[in-house]
Predict the structure.
Amino acid sequence: MQSDLEARAQAFSEQAHAGQRRKYTDEPYIVHPSAVAELVRSIPHSEEMPAAAWLHDVVEDTETSLDTIAREFGDRVAGLVFQLTDVSRPGDGNRRIRKALDRAHLAMASTEAKTIKLADLIDNSKSIVERDPEFAKVYIREKAELLGVLCGGDTMLWSQAADIVTKFLEREKNIT
């Protein structure tokens, strides 16, 4: 059952992401935060975690600020969203450098934020592996590195994410 906080976060996320589409499926973008929130609800969680799951891409992908998140949902939700928001910018260097900056940021994240990031990784990885095997070669290697800093998150979600990564890398190894 959804808390009032989560219901408000869902409505806010739906409005913020209105008109956005998923890259590979052309589905409304909101299906991704919904899947992340569902994964978070499937494991032990605080009240703020599903709310932050709904909002995890809002600051990165819309005009919404962290100040707005804090005002609407409180400092704990805003703190989780901050921990989940990439800190790198295009001017910071190539993709490898930017991903290293974002990984270092996540290494300092709370257990709750790492758990939400694992749910995000699981949902995104399934889509990318299925629909863009060429990009998945780069993406999954990045996620293998990321798993090293997410080990403080929920162990069930970490195992699910590691399984996706391992299976893809093993399949790639057998192909080459």
